[in-house]
Every structure is written in C-alpha cells, then in structure tokens.
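Per-residue structure
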Amino acid sequence: MSDRKNFRVLMWCVPRSVSTAIAKCFSFIDNTQVWFEPYCLAFFQDFQMGMMGLQLPKRAEDFDSQQVFEKVAVMLKGTPMEGMFSPSMIDMSLFLRDSIRKQLDSLPADKSVFIKDMAYGISNHHDLLPSKDSGFRHTFLIRDPERMFPSWRNLLMAQLKQMPMPGQKEIKPETFDMTEDPPFMMPGYTYKCQYDLWKFVKENLDPNPVIIDIDELLSNPATMLPKYFEACGMTWDEKYLQWDASPEVTKSWRCIFPLTGSPADNMVAVTHQNAFNSSAFKPSKPKISRDEMTPDVIKAIDATSAYYNEMAAARIMP
C-alpha cells in the first residue's frame, strides 16, 4: 500500500493477555521488526543473577559479559540450566535494560518496530525506557483479573516445575500459592506495575496512551484491531485478521534467547507454544466462577481489580 507509514509501538501487558499472538499477527506487517519481551527477560536475568549472588550493573558501560558468563558457568554446572546459559544461546546486547534503552533510542528510521513486553519488566526502572524523542507510542493491553489469574496460576506452576528455583518447595496444585511461592512475584501481582507505568507515561511521555482490552479484541477483532491500528498511527489492512500458522516467523524476533530451535527456547516455548502456532484471534473461554477459584487467585483478584477498572475506563471502546 502506497500510504503505509512506519511506526514504533510498545505494547505493555499483564501475563496471559494473548500478547504473543498479537506479536505474531504483527510480524506479518510489511517492513516490521518484532521485539519479544526485552525488558521482561532482562528483569529475569537481573533476578536470577541476584539469586546466585551476582549483582548486575545498571549501566551498559559497566557490564563485563565475559566475567558474568565465567562466574555463572561455575554456579550452574550440573543443573538443568547448564546447557542453556551460554554465549551462543543468549543475545548479550539484550541482557541489561540500559542496553535495550540505548538500542531503542538509535533505531534506523526506515523500519517499523513493534515491541510486546510485560510491564513488570520495567518497574523501578522507568528511567531506562526509550526516550521521548525515540518516537515510540506506549500502549497498554489490559485484561480482567478474573480471567488472567486462574490461567496464570497454572502457568506459574508449569514454569517452576520446568526450571526450579534454589530451595523451592514441591509444586502441588492443592497447596501452591501464586501470591507467595514464585520468588519473582512483584508487588500488586503485576497489575500495579502496569498501572504505575501507565501513570508514568501519562505524566512524562504521552498524556493519552492507548489502552485496549484483550477480551474485547478477541470477541470482535474485525472492529477492535482497526481501532488499535488507528490509535497508534498504523496502517490497517484486513489481511491482518488471519496469518500463517507456522511458528517460523518467530525466528525473526529480537529476543534475548534467539528463537531458533535451541534448548534455550524451552524457557519461552513452555509459555507461548499455542500463540506460536496461532493463525487468528479466537473468542475467550467463559470465566470460571468464583466458587471454582483457589484462595490465592481470589486474593490476587481482590487486590488488583481497582487498577484494572481505572485503566479500563480509559480504554478504546467497542
């Protein structure tokens, strides 16, 4: 299309919000590079290094990747992660939030960029967001906590079983507490992280950031997706309502773990396999009743509904 415009869009999400399927859909927009959770995965490197007693620097110029690899190799020897943490399997330019910021501030102007990320990945580090001059439009993908938390609880159990943390207790569905057992759980169970980032963006970068509710998008993508494109200054085409089911396109994404079929991909694939093989948006499953929810899920819902409701009041309307 002759009137196609390049864009730079950041979509800040909560977990289990179908954001990876959106990233895959957007991968088929001509001349577009997709970045996959750069800040979120840098958050986990920071967290994991801390668990091993290694303090990562905040600034890129103070980071010695070779020294970090040498220390980590000794600590991980004989563990499930031994074969996954190596220079050949990690894009070290995405290891620190500051390195990510520097790259986003110096992108070439001739290509569109879409980044999907988790808002908790940048919490307490809002100074490491791309600059206002970078041209990024900050957008927020929200989801009703009553839909998000039951799904996320199941995923957290699967992730912790696959990659157990030091000193982790046995993961059992009947005793697991998603609000306390994951050692990386953020205050406000990620909803406050998204809310605080939204407030920061409104006050410092864009007084009217775009908000869209994923369940409304899923129920009517032919209406809601064009509205999102318009709000972001992106050129809409009906062909974006369906895309190739092959996961091959994910190999082109910028990701700290290049998605090329290596063992390191397992840390990403356990979470996103369905989205990697998606080809269209499908309506959400019905909510489960509160009577069917576990106490930890109810606790998380009650603690976060106010954040969701305030953001929902400013969303793109159906």
Remarks:
- Residues 145 and 211 are 16 Å apart (CA to CA).
